[in-house]
Amino acid sequence: MFISKIELNSKIGITPKTKEILNQEGIISIFDLITLYPKRYLNFSISELTEGPVLVKGVIQGDVKAVRFRNNLNMLSFECFINDRIVKIVIFNRLFLKNRLVNNKTIYISGKYERKKETITASDIYFKLDEGKITPVYKSKADQKVIHEAITASLLRYKDYINDEVPEYLLSRYRLLDFYTCLMMIHNPSSLDDVKEALRRLKFEEFFRFQLKLAYSRLDNESTLKAPKIIDMARVRKFISTIPFELTDDQKEVVNDIYRDMKSPKAANRLVQGDVGSGKTIVAAISLYAVAINRCQSCLMAPTEILARQHYKNLMDIFKDEDIRIELLTSSISKVKRRELLERLSNGDIDILIGTHAVISDDVIFKNLELVITDEQHRFGVNQRQILRKKGNNPDVIYLTATPIPRTLAIGLFADLDISSIRTMPKGRSPIKTKVINNENLKPVFNFINDEIKHGHQAYIIAPLITESDKIDLHDVNNVYEMVKEHFDCNIGLMHGKLKDNEKDAIMQSFVNNEIQILVSTTVIEVGIDNKNASVILILDAERFGLSQLHQLRGRVGRGNIKSYCFLSSTYEEIERLKIMEETTDGFRLSEEDLRLRGPGDFFGNKQSGMPEFKLVDIVKDYKILEVAKKEATYIINNNLLKKYKYLYEYIKNEFDNSSILD
Ligand code: ADP
Ligand code: MG
């Protein structure tokens, strides 16, 4: 029996009611319960009498004075003998304790000590305390004590079902605790050192599993061979010469990387990273071209319909003199048209299919899919990466991303991918002028925007929030919209995530057509939108964003030849942190800085980022563990040792419910 299959039950003291609460929180099995790691601990260790928060033991000296204020407020004050000193204690609104606080009584006080006043402002007073005891606190709505007792009971009752999935030689090599001891210690630590030791092992395991997936994914890719492409290079060169601009050196290099991939018997699995506006689309187009002239098929996936449509328009233009059949598949086409389109696709009468990730749904069948390009790859996790590659006949897969990934992260998290970078911008771009301003002084910016509009340009105003409650927030996108309407007498559009896709598209389209001059929006416009006539972007509450995300948003302007501007409005305290945005437009540098300042947690700014969601590890702080886990995982996979470890083998098989190289 697997412990992950055993439900919560009364034998461990879980009532149906508690079970319901826990189930709702995603804690279904005994395994889920015992791996519900404490989010923090209450530490009843007696501290020294030092400035700041303390927990101390003392003996009451003399009488307790009670003072009543207006508004039902009251205060007790008395003196206590603590560590050879007399300290004054004050505590508010505990009048009811007065009779128990008598001369010579020993008590425990937790609160804040101020040396200058020789006073503790107490938050709690305890008469009895498990001195030195460390109590776990769990993230759950269920009763803390019930959870803790149920976990302890499970650990005893189901001991024999708890398997250690990390091979023994690794435990001894890195002096890691076995899983069972580790669980005992993390739920019932006798000291904070216990917690640290347990965490070390659990973090290792978390990284180790993830790295196994990556290594497996990479090996799987390398061992699935495809027919190397034969490409008419003379024809490709001729096509490239028709492009109205000269490729940058970086673009050329990336094209070469991709062509090398296509000509090799290994299926490509490459991440192309390049700042907003660095020109990834043309690189994609040149890659698609090689496949299309062989009358084979390729597919270009975009995260949103707007972007898919934009790509469609672009490619129709780029390939206007070529005999290449391009189609767009979105959810808004009629059933009849869709059926017809899918039929042509399976007959091989379409060369390039463009769409949202609906294009990889099961009923979309290609005749000979050889290349898949996904724009803004960070929306795909490692498991999805695998699924993508199984579509078609081991197609080459290229991921485009405008969020440069710091080197440290790339090595640890995208080890299954080859990486190419476009670091330089096309010639002739003047960098976007950026200014950080104080929230309270928007007037000059509004005037500035007005001037830009008078010159025939357009503007974005980004408000991060859309508030659910009736709480009034000035920077809620709806309120901003109202405010902007009052200030300007041009056409203003409002866009947010709650609109339907076709509504969003319609607004976007009228912005691109300059029927709307100012677009007030939440971050739904973040990815890839191209309006060359937009010259200003104002981002409100900029401190809520990571630098990389701000950089992405800023990239909405400055896409043509018009001199462009970005205003970041923020609270006074945050202005310093944002100043780096004024200094640099290098997305690579900003991403490194972001990582340093904010950690990887919200690196890509949203949940569907494809960044693995780790329970315990911090990719930056725990980087050493990551390196070791990576080394060991790679060794096991590359030397074909996985089968020796039953649990790991099951795990990987389960994760990629296909097992081509395992069997
Ligand atoms: P992104 O990398 O953000 O997807 P795009 O591919 O949309 O960027 O390119 C942004 C703009 O730059 C497009 O209008 C494109 O035509 C133009 N562009 C791309 N490469 C070059 C180049 N080498 N020289 C001049 N303009 C270029
Ligand atoms: Mg793009």
Using only CA atoms, what is the Rg? 30 Å
User: Structural class, please?
Assistant: alpha/beta
Helix content: 25-40%
Low-confidence stretches: 602-609
Main sheet overview: 7 strands, parallel
Kindly state the number of beta strands: 20
The count of helical stretches stands at: 22
Q: State the strand order across the main sheet.
A: 10-11-9-12-13-8-14
Q: How would the global form be characterised? A: globular
Structure description:
- The structure is a single chain.
- By secondary structure, the chain is of the alpha/beta class.
- Helices cover 37% and strands 19% of the residues.
- It has a 7-stranded parallel β-sheet, with helices on both faces. A 6-stranded parallel β-sheet has the order 15-20-19-16-18-17, sandwiched between helices. Strands 2-3-4-6-5 form a 5-stranded mixed barrel.
- Helix 3 packs antiparallel against helix 5 (179-187), helix 6 crosses helix 22 and helix 8 runs parallel beside helix 9 (280-292).
- The relative contact order is 0.09.
- Residues 602-609 have low confidence and may be disordered.
- It binds adenosine-5'-diphosphate and magnesium ion.
- The site of adenosine-5'-diphosphate has 16 residues, from helix 9.
